[in-house]
Amino acid sequence: MAEPVHLAAVRASYDTVAADYLRLVVPPEGMDPVSRAMIGAFAELVRESGGGEVADVGCGPGRITAYLHGLGLSAFGVDVSGGMIGLARRAYPELRFTVGSMGALDAADGSLGGILAWYSVHHTPPEQLPVLFAEFARALAPGGHLLLGGHAGDEERHPTSAYGHPVSYASYLVPVGRLVELLERAGFGVTARVEQPNAQNADRSHVCLVARTPQNAGD
Length: 219
Ligand SMILES: C[S@@+](CC[C@H](N)C(=O)[O-])C[C@H]1O[C@@H](n2cnc3c(N)ncnc32)[C@H](O)[C@@H]1O
Description:
With 219 residues, the protein is α/β, with parallel strands linked by helices. It has one domain: Rossmann fold (3-Layer(aba) Sandwich). 34% of the residues lie in helices and 27% in strands. The strands form three sheets. The chain has a seven-stranded mixed β-sheet, with helices on both faces. Strand 4, helix 5 and strand 5 (140-152) form a beta-alpha-beta unit. The longest helix is centred in the first third of the chain and has 19 residues, at 6-24. 40% of the residues are buried. The site of S-adenosylmethionine has 22 residues, from helix 1, helix 3 and strand 2.
């Protein structure tokens, strides 16, 4: 399958910023308590549903993958940036990290207990979100859980620099109601929706959505 055009810019930009991203962005242990609690709740939901492998998609330097591992999950990371994956492998050699696209997961149909996408789907152009969410639904087991965390809004940004380096990616903020609608169209039921206006002193709201695939065919 041909790679979506936007991914080349995402890869190049995160390869460039990787080391400073790691230095500047707080790990899960330093996150605001609500965000950390949502990641903890996601881990508990996956464990209660029987566990299974969990993909941290757009895993960056792998700190959330490792945090999920510490919460008892069999977690692995996927990221399009080889620079990010290199940092993740160096920090957590016991965990599996793969260079790849979250839009074409190397996972059999119905094989994952959970998928976490933390501040990573906003680089996907909104018109491609239906295909992306269909890919998540394909890879998740019946009753599998998805946690989406990131900024919500209604704007497209083309920053020229981030983390002290030039970047060429775009960020697409989508209203939370639209995200819910797209998840439902992909077959998910949204089980939790947490919004934090002005979270982390940002000028945008932070949103966490937990969604689940149907437990039985026809649900
Ligand atoms: C802002 S960073 C977040 C990293 C990590 N989730 C965290 O919270 O520390 C976004 C990451 O998503 C990755 N990414 C964006 N779109 C992707 C895609 N379609 N497939 C795989 N990785 C992607 C980027 O390469 C980058 O490492």
